[in-house]
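Thanks for the sequence, V.! I ran Protein GrpE right away. Repeating your input here for the record:
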Amino acid sequence: MEETTKQTNQETDSTGEAVTETTVRTVEELEALLVEEQKKSAELADNWKRSLADFQNLKRRTEIERANLNADVKSRVILRLLPIVDDFERALSSTPDNLKVEPWVNGVSLIEKKLKTLLDQEGISSFDAKDADFDPRFHDAVQRDEDGNGDKDIVTEVYQKGYMMGDRVLRPAAVKVGRG
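Predicted structure:
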């Protein structure tokens, strides 16, 4: 009977030893698997952060492009409207005094005021170029003062008003520049 107990103890020892070796091997495999999964997790987190940053950049670029597109469309429409505003101004400034009391002239004047109000509401403003230093960003020199009147590179006459949309020149003023 002693021999049977010894044999069972040896099996237990050898089984216990075998279990221990298997356990150690399994723990090592699990640790390696854990390290591998942590690397994958870190890589996925990094990819997610990059994707989020890319999305935010795309969203910001899209908003900027949309705003620029809206401003471009708006400026194209306004540029087509400005000659009409110019025509109303010329018509009203050349109306003889005896006709200024006529109701239709008053109606034309009201239309001009509405157009100017619309421009103002859209952030469009005219700028005064007379007696200003000539600046090619704001002025389009269509004539040089050949009489020598006026100071050199000073706007002596404005043929067509210039307009700004915010801080951007929408249409430069057509001007006559002094020769000095």
